[in-house]
């Protein structure tokens, strides 16, 4: 594996993954609309920026590519519910099309980062053979993507699905709309962790550094050990009930923190078994939620990390749409104040 094409390269996970791939000596083609800014990826001689929508990729963009990591997604449940049709287009149809184009152009390996959220609600601890029960548009679109790409696997095209736990931790494209990150910010800002009732619901968690390590590992693993396989990505240590999770985060921080409840009870609840990835690839997660929370807290304290509109995904999507409407109303001759060059005729 030499050249890796990463979709969603400027996102929360992509902006951690891409530098890691470059450090390992890969050449990277980074595909993204860069809604959150192209500055999230630093220039590098082995990095090519492809400013394109995943729904408009063409076969020639996969020429010379060895592997695809298809990160692109309308991420999180609130955004999925707000933009239902787009979520199915991006998270399902575009990713299946990307896999098909990759296979057509001789790409050897395709990795789909999906989500444990497709388990939805489970009484038992879910493993890769458990029935899925997706409850949201985001989860349903991920499941359809899995169903679309796995049948493409053959001796010449290795396909692997990663069902990631809920991700947390620092990223250059920071998100504070993720459970651990949001709890940490609340604790730092005013000593309060906001927590959706009733705190008994289960969620598996994984640090962004851990899940990107798995992506790198899947690029190097023997094809016959991962082809056509689904792996839950996380750790049993990081299966948390949200109430105890908030208490662990509070205990990890060097300040007094209280828990403040809000909202209606969240009925999504699932625990996940991660034995398969640990056994098959001899991998174990390095980080706990407490580790991730302390890292974020320290950056906030130093002032190297701030909460902005960009760090809440749905808010930023809505802001971009608002400004697109404003700009469309005032744009004329290719500009706002400065116009496309033309000679002014003075009579």
Automatic annotation (TrEMBL):
Segments forming domain NAD-dependent epimerase/dehydratase: 4-234
Transmembrane domains' residue ranges: none
UniProt-listed InterPro entries: Epimerase_deHydtase, Lipid_A_modif_metabolic_enz, NAD(P)-bd_dom_sf
One protein family per Pfam: Epimerase
Domain of life: Bacteria
Protein name per its UniProtKB record: NAD-dependent dehydratase
Organism in which the protein naturally occurs: Virgibacillus profundi
């Amino acid at each position: 594996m030499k050249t890796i094409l990463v979709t969603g390269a400027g996102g929360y996970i992509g902006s951690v993954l891409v530098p890691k791939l470059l450090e390992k000596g890969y050449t990277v083609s980074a595909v993204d609309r860069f809604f959150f800014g192209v500055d999230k990826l630093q220039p590098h001689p082995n990095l090519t920026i492809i400013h394109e929508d995943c729904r408009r990729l063409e076969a020639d963009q996969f020429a010379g590519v060895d592997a695809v990591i298809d990160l692109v997604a309308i991420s999180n449940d609130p955004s999925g519910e707000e933009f239902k049709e787009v979520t199915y287009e991006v998270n399902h149809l575009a990713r299946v099309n990307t896999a098909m184009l990759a296979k057509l152009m001789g790409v050897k390996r395709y990795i789909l980062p999906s989500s444990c959220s497709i388990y939805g609600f489970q009484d038992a601890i879910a493993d890769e053979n458990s029935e899925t029960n997706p409850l949201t548009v985001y989860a349903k679109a991920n499941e359809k993507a899995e169903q679309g790409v796995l049948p493409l696997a053959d001796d010449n095209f290795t396909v692997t699905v990663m069902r990631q736990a809920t991700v947390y931790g620092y990223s250059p494209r920071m998100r504070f709309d993720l459970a651990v990150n949001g709890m940490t910010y609340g604790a730092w800002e005013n000593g309060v962790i906001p927590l959706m009732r009733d705190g008994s619901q289960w969620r598996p968690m994984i640090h962004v550094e851990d899940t990107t390590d798995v992506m790198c590992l899947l690029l190097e693993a023997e094809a016959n050990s991962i082809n056509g396989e689904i792996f839950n990505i996380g750790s049993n240590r990081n299966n948390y009930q949200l109430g105890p999770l908030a208490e662990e985060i509070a205990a990890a921080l060097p300040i007094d923190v209280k828990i403040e409840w809000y909202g209606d009870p969240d009925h999504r609840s699932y625990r996940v078994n991660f034995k398969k990835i640990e056994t098959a690839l001899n991998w174990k997660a390095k980080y706990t939620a407490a580790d991730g929370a302390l890292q974020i807290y320290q950056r906030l304290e130093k002032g190297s990390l701030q909460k902005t509109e960009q760090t809440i995904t749905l808010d930023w999507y809505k802001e971009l749409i608002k400004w697109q409407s404003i700009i469309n109303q005032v744009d004329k001759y290719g500009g706002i104040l400065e116009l496309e060059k033309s000679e002014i005729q003075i009579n």
